Amino acid sequence: MSPDIDTKQISLYKNTFPQRICTTLFNKLYQEIPWSQPQITLFGKTHPIPRQQCWMGDEHVNYSYSNVQMKPIPWADTVSFIKRFVETICNTTFNSVLINLYRDGNDSNGWHSDNEKELGTHPLIASFNLGESRAFKLKNKTTKELYAYQLDAGDLLIMKKGVQAEWLHTIPKTKKVKQPRINLTFRSIYSEPDRF
Question: What is the DSSP track for 69-137?
C-alpha cells in the first residue's frame, strides 16, 4: 500500500479499510473501551479534558502528560487487530496506544506536541481514525507555517522523525460535526516500570 501523501515528516494513507469494516471497528471500540475523562492542569487551572480517552499497552508502559498519569490496560482484541495492521504499514512495533473519543465537534485537542520524555527524542507516532471526519492541523513552532488535513474513517496519518520537535498539532472545535470520532495514536514508550 502506497501513501496518498508522503513527505519527509508526514505520510497519509487514505481509506485503508472499506467503510463497512471501519463502521464495525468503530462500533466495537465505542462499546468495548472503558472510556474516562481525567482532569488536566494547564496554566495552574484544573478541568476535565475536552474528550474521553483510554490508555492501552504492554504491562508497565506508563505515560503522563500535563499531570495526567496513566497506567495501561491490556490490549483489547479489536485494538490489537488495528495495531498489527498499522505496524505492517509503519514497519515497526508499538508498545502502547492513546485512544481518544471525540463525542462531537465540541470535543477537541488543543495545540500541543507529543514530546514527553517517555517517547524518546524523535518518536514515530501513527494516528488511525474511525467515525466522523475531523480536521487535523499542524503549525510550525518557528515559522508558524500551517497545514491542514481532513482525516476520514480508515485514514492513517504517520508523524515521522522531527514532527514533535518542530511542529504543534491540534484537533480544533467545530460546530459542523455532530457525530463521534475515535482516534488511536500508536507509539512506543521508553520509561522505567515503576515511574509511578
Answer: EE-PBPPPHHHHHHHHHHHHHHTS--SEEEEEEE-STT--EEEE----GGG-SS--EEEEEEES-EEEE
Locate 54 and state its grid cell: 483510554
Question: What kind and span of H or E run contains 32?
Answer: helix 19-32
- Report the C-alpha gap between 187 and 77 in whole angstroms: 18
- Phi-psi label, residue 146: left if phi above 0, alpha if psi -120 to 50, beta otherwise: beta
**Which of the 8 DSSP states describes residue 152?**
P
| Sign of the Cα pseudo-torsion (145, 122, 112, 90, in order) | positive
pLDDT in tens, 33-80: 999 998 887 778 888 999 999 999 999 898 877 667 889 999 999 999
CA distance 179 to 70: 27
- For domain 5-187, say whether CATH 3.40.50.970 is its number: no
The domain spans of the chain are 5-187
Name which of 49, 184, 61, 66 is nearest 125 in CA terms.
184
Could you give the CA distance from residue 102 to residue 129 in angstroms, rounded to a whole number? 11
Q: What is the pTM of this model?
A: 0.91
Instruction: List the one residue out of 115, 123, 102, 109 whose CA is nearest residue 181.
Output: 102
